[in-house]
Amino acid sequence: MVVEGVSNDLADEITQTVSVPTIGIGASPSCDGQILVTDDMIGLFEWTPKFVRRYGTAREMISRAIQAYAADVRSGVFPNSSEIYELKAKAVATD
Which residues are catalytic? Predict the structure, then answer.
């Protein structure tokens, strides 16, 4: 049973009352398990819900990568000859 965004006391009571495992999303460490959305965990977005603990800052890394890619495309250095496909010459019959 998913228990989302409820007080610690209520999540604890639910977990003790029901016969199925409880999974908390911003609920309580008393739940049998926890869910944390990956996008929140790695800091993909600026806003962070109260119950999220950030374990990384992917947003900054992704932004830097996109800026570098755009700069390489604009300057013409991407793609280079090792990053494109070329047609292979057909063998010519010699009969």
Answer: 4
